[in-house]
């Protein structure tokens, strides 16, 4: 099988396809009606970049990851928007055979809890052959060779792993097997949902360097979904911060970490336990992340927890859902006072 | 002897919790290693003073949970002694031992599966409190009062949560309910095994601080098990940090000392693996990576870390280093070649 999304060359280096997500809305049917888990999201993945999508539980990250493959399951559906992938077209309008081929073909993915998503009754090798069958791979031998090469690239013995069942592999090994299965059909776009969650720090660091290396070597465009800002900081060129189904801030990772603009991003970074410095500097964010049913219907979704709003309650925060505005090139923030050019820091004490 | 007398003995101010030479061996799981044994703990010594804190860090499978379960009485140990306020539990009959273990409460990683989804917070707390009232001869009216007390202690508004079911609460609130339930037995210690890893990032610090506050307000001690070294600082900078590798403590000392000046290569690898917040931090100059991943097949001869250690020598492969002092008299390490290295990220 030849992939349609050939990597293009930039400065002699292979890079993955560009991806343009426009006005993407994904909703789940609930007893309270159809509610959006992802709301009018706009996000571009630059060719060859690693983007980190970060947010807390229920912010809509996994829903986004599934949408990238047009694989949102009932009771959910993509209600609006498009996901244009260079060489493949709009994934949202793909269907049937073409869609099945794209999944695991041009678009490689490792879903959340990949650690438990391998089939417990089949060896990894058998599952590799299943993948070959479902994607009509002619040359199975070449595929196995490719799989072993990827596994050894990730520090595993190909022969041993292909003969193993899931329970014979550690968490870190399963994650690597997941990445192998995602890439073995020559994917150019890679979607990883929580690739290191539940791993210890050393295994995590190992997986993250594998992701970085494989991304560069194979010329990919990669989306890493995680709740852990540390993971984003280690692998991603760009970060997109999600809250209540919205992208509230995006930009180059180091810039966003150094100088977060959205009150949520600020609060989140300020809540990270750190290894050095005064522990008392870090502060938990008051309140709690919303769930589908509790996302405010009107105004800014972060309002209830927002220190900026508490210190300076603006009417537009209550009435209008802020849209992302580009405050400097490549830096987008969805917050009314930030868009108006006002300072983000307003006497935080009043907000507590 | 009535239960309350035993409680009085347990709460008598004393030595706290002490483990000496705790050994635990399991039969290996899986077909590959069938027949062999796993040395989950190879003679672990630790001490948690009353109201104190001790954190255990180490890779997956190094024995942290096993130690926590032994401490909570959920697992037996093969050798060594475990004492609570000077009473050696090892020599007690099961019946005499149980009341001590009941007052060492486990807080698990997943607050959702720890709570019965069909019961309200009210019911979840009423059961253990009813038992407690009976044991200590308190009147029924005490139950409702105590219920509100423990909820306030964990920072929950009783009127808001009492009538609710676990699924109606956030992860952070659920974990607070779990902690409140643990407090109903007036525990001597809480064993928190990855207790914040499933909590939303914005709420984690709140739970860590709560555990620290409880050390002061109710004098409970905390055994904190984690992959995330940074969180150990928030349980109490005054506590000790234990670095465990393949069932052996390879470095220990005051938390801040070990984080700032680790001398064991394994500790240094662990601290090096913590993500650097590029933009806010720069990596430590001497960041260290193990030469190989952890494998079941690695040798038991010599230093347990020798197969993965960048500095291993022939001596390391044949001789096992014991815990010894280096610099700070409170810092112990098990390495022939201890050396300070700058591995932790520093503020940019
Ligand atoms: N019931 C059991 N039967 C057999 N082996 C066991 C059992 N429980 C634990 N072990 C083994 O004992 C060792 C220590 O396991 P333990 O669960 O204490 O590690 P841990 O440090 O808590 O790891 P993690 O960070 O992954 O939670 C491992 O090799 C594990 O496989
Ligand atoms: N199958 C489903 N049915 C109904 N609601 C769902 C379903 N899957 C997810 N949701 C809801 O959609 C929101 C976003 O979920 P998800 O994308 O899994 O978030 P994340 O990955 O950021 O934790 C949550 O409120 C979640 O409860
Ligand atoms: S729009 Fe208003 S409520 Fe929303 S984050 Fe900005 S200041 Fe806070
Ligand atoms: S004793 Fe040798 S192998 Fe063990 S940690 Fe020290 S230097 Fe490394
Ligand atoms: Mg998810
Ligand atoms: Mg464990």
TrEMBL record, chain A:
SUPFAM superfamilies: P-loop containing nucleoside triphosphate hydrolases
Pfam families for the chain: ABC_tran (PF00005), oligo_HPY (PF08352)
Subcellular location, record wording: Cell membrane
Keyword set, alphabetical order: ATP-binding, Cell membrane, Membrane, Nucleotide-binding, Transport
Its membrane topology: Peripheral membrane protein
Cellular component annotations (GO), alphabetically ordered: plasma membrane
Domain ABC transporter, first and last residues per copy: 19-269
GO molecular function, one term: ATP binding
Statement: the UniProt record of this protein carries the keyword Nucleotide-binding: yes
GO biological process: peptide transport
NCBIfam families: oligo_HPY (TIGR01727)
PANTHER family xrefs: DIPEPTIDE TRANSPORT ATP-BINDING PROTEIN DPPD, OLIGOPEPTIDE TRANSPORT ATP-BINDING PROTEIN APPD
Protein family according to the UniProt entry: Belongs to the ABC transporter superfamily.
Name this protein carries in UniProt: Peptide ABC transporter ATP-binding protein
Species per Swiss-Prot/TrEMBL record: Actinocatenispora comari
From TrEMBL, chain B:
Keywords from the named record: ATP-binding, Nucleotide-binding, Transport
Highest rank taxon of the organism: Bacteria
Coiled-coil zones: none
Keyword Transmembrane attached: no
Location of the ABC transporter domain: 17-271
The keyword rRNA processing appears for this protein: no
SUPFAM superfamilies cross-referenced by the UniProt entry: P-loop containing nucleoside triphosphate hydrolases (SSF52540)
NCBIfam families: oligo_HPY
Protein known as: ABC transporter ATP-binding protein
Native source organism of the sequence: Actinocatenispora comari
Native organism taxonomy: Bacteria, Bacillati, Actinomycetota, Actinomycetes, Micromonosporales
């Amino acid at each position: 099988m030849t992939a349609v999304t050939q990597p293009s060359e930039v400065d002699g280096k292979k890079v993955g396809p560009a991806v343009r997500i426009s006005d993407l809305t994904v909703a789940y049917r609930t007893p309270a009606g159809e509610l959006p888990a992802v709301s009018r999201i706009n996000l571009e993945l630059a060719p060859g970049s690693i983007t980190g999508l970060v947010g807390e539980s229920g912010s809509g990250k996994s829903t986004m990851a599934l949408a990238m493959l047009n694989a949102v399951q009932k009771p959910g559906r993509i209600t609006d928007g498009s996901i244009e992938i260079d060489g493949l077209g709009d994934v949202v309008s793909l269907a049937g055979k073409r869609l099945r081929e794209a999944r695991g073909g041009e678009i490689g993915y490792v879903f959340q809890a990949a650690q438990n998503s391998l089939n417990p009754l089949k060896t990894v090798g058998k599952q590799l052959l299943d993948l070959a069958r479902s994607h009509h791979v002619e040359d199975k031998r070449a595929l196995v060779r490719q799989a072993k090469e990827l596994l050894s690239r990730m520090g595993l013995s190909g022969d041993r792993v292909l003969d193993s069942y899931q329970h014979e592999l550690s968490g870190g090994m399963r994650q690597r097997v997941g990445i192998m299965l995602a890439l073995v059909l020559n994917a150019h776009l890679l979607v990883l949902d929580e690739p290191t969650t539940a791993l210890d720090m050393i295994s995590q660091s190992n997986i993250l360097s594998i992701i970085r290396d494989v991304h560069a070597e194979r010329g990919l465009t990669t989306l890493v979904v995680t709740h852990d800002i540390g993971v984003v900081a280690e692998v991603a060129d760009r970060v997109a911060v999600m809250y209540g189904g919205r992208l509230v801030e995006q930009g180059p990772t180091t810039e966003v970490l150094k100088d977060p603009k959205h009150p949520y991003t600020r609060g989140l970074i300020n809540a990270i336990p750190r290894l050095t410095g005064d522990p008392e500097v870090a502060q938990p964010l008051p309140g709690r992340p919303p769930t589908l049913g509790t996302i405010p219907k009107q105004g800014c979704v972060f309002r209830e927890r927002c220190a900026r709003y508490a210190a300076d309650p603006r009417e537009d925060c209550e009435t209008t859902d802020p849209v992302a505005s580009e405050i400097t090139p490549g830096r987008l923030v969805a917050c009314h006072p930030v868009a108006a050019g006002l300072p983000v820091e307003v006497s935080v004490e009043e907000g507590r | 002897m009535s239960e309350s007398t035993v409680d009085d003995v347990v709460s008598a101010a004393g030595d706290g919790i002490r483990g000496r030479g705790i050994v635990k061996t399991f039969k290996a799981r899986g077909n590959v290693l069938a027949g062999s044994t796993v040395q989950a703990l190879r003679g672990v010594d630790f001490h948690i003073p009353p109201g104190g804190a001790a954190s255990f860090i180490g890779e997956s499978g190094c024995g942290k949970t096993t130690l926590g379960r032994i401490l909570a009485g959920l697992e037996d140990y093969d050798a060594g002694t475990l004492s609570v306020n000077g009473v050696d539990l090892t020599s007690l009959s099961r019946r005499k031992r149980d009341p001590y273990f009941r007052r060492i409460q486990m807080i698990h990683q997943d607050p959702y599966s720890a709570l019965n989804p069909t019961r309200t917070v009210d019911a979840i707390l009423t059961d253990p409190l009813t038992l407690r009232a009976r044991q200590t001869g308190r009147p029924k009216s005490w139950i409702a009062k105590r219920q509100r007390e423990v909820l306030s202690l964990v920072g929950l508004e009783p009127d808001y949560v009492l009538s609710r079911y676990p699924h109606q609460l956030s992860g952070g609130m659920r974990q607070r309910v779990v902690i409140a339930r643990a407090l109903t037995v007036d525990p001597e210690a809480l064993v928190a095994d990855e207790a914040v890893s499933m909590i939303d990032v914005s709420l984690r610090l709140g739970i860590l601080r709560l555990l620290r506050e409880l050390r002061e307000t109710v004098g409970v001690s905390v055994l904190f098990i984690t992959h995330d070294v940074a969180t150990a600082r928030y349980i109490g900078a005054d506590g000790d940090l234990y670095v465990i590798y393949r069932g052996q403590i390879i470095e220990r000392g005051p938390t801040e000392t070990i984080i700032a000046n680790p001398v064991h290569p394994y500790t240094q690898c662990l601290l090096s693996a913590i993500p650097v917040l590029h933009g806010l931090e720069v990596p430590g100059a001497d960041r260290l990576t193990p030469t190989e991943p952890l494998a079941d097949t690695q040798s038991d001869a010599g230093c347990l870390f020798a197969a993965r250690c960048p500095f291993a020598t022939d001596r390391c492969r044949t001789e096992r280093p014991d815990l010894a002092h280096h610099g700070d008299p409170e810092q112990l390490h098990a390495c022939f070649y201890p050396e300070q290295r700058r591995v932790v990220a520093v503020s940019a």
